[in-house]
UniProtKB/TrEMBL annotation:
Transmembrane segments: none
Protein name: Exodeoxyribonuclease-3
Entry annotation: catalytic residues: 106, 147, 248
Keyword terms: Hydrolase, Magnesium, Manganese, Metal-binding
Residues annotated as site: Transition state stabilizer: 149
Required cofactor(s): Mg(2+); Mn(2+)
Length: 260
């Protein structure tokens, strides 16, 4: 079973790239972030014509998350992160897919930091940490996947000294991510590639992709029940080189069939 995540940076503006990638790679489950489309503008028909079912939580101009499945039923669980009923940002959607609990998330960027946006990022992170801990008590296969807007360590960024004051790399952000991992989650990419240089995002400016000046900010966190079934993981970095593409590349994992 192949599960992928992709911050599309505008699902309609980058729809040809998304559909091309789906047709080429055919992952079983896809988590999308940054749809930048209201609920009624999600391109459901085009995605269904590619062979995928979809659930989504849109928002005009900003945010937005979706879960797509190929030949698999999606049972939606919730479409908001618990803990703040007044938070109207479309940043989280959760579903049961083929026996796996899938949480698709788009964690706030937080810049400029310090400031209100960074405070919101840390507050959202705390809510995620509480919810993640509760999920682990269920003793079921779980993946929390998406754009975390977190650079976990220095090896996850080109020239880390330039990112010291950025909300993605500040000590508070990295500490929050580490606290989440310490609950018992496994960073899938680092499980298989503990020392490799792996990036998932390259800015549009200063020829970042051409220079390979990237960041690793899109992550798969696996529960103990799922971690033992991990057999492969990678980044479809070539997609970042396509015309009119997102500034992120798709990231994926594969799970062995013994899970079922």
């Amino acid at each position: 079973m192949k599960i992928a995540t992709y911050n599309v940076n505008g699902v309609n503006g980058h729809l040809p790239v998304l559909l091309r990638w789906l047709n080429e790679t055919k992952p079983d489950v896809v988590c999308l972030q940054e749809l930048k489309a209201p609920q009624e503008k999600f391109p459901e028909e085009a995605i269904r014509n590619t062979g995928y079912n979809a659930i989504w939580h849109g928002q005009k101009s900003w945010n937005g998350v979706a879960i797509l499945t190929r030949n698999l039923e999606i049972k939606e669980i919730q479409r908001a992160l618990p803990g703040d009923p007044e938070d109207i940002h479309s940043r989280y959607i959760e579903a049961l897919v083929n026996g796996i609990h899938v949480g698709c998330l788009y964690l706030p960027n937080g810049n400029p930091a310090p400031g209100p946006k960074f405070d919101y990022k840390l507050s959202w992170f705390k809510r995620l940490t509480v919810h993640a801990k509760e999920l682990l008590t269920k003793d079921i296969p779980i993946v929390l996947v998406g754009d975390y807007n977190v650079i976990p360590t220095e090896r996850d960024v080109y020239k880390p000294e330039r990112w010291i004051d950025d909300a993605l790399f500040r000590p508070e952000t990295r500490a929050a991510f580490e606290e989440l991992l310490m609950q018992g989650w496994t960073d899938a990419i680092r499980k298989l590639y503990p020392e490799d240089k792996i990036y998932t995002f390259w800015d549009y400016f200063r020829n970042a992709y051409g220079r390979d000046a990237g960041l690793r900010i899109d992550h798969f966190l696996l529960s103990p029940q799922l971690e033992k079934h991990l057999i492969a993981a990678g980044v479809d970095r070539h997609v970042r080189g396509w015309e009119k593409t997102s500034d992120h590349a798709p990231v994926w994992i594969e799970l062995n069939e013994s899970l079922y």
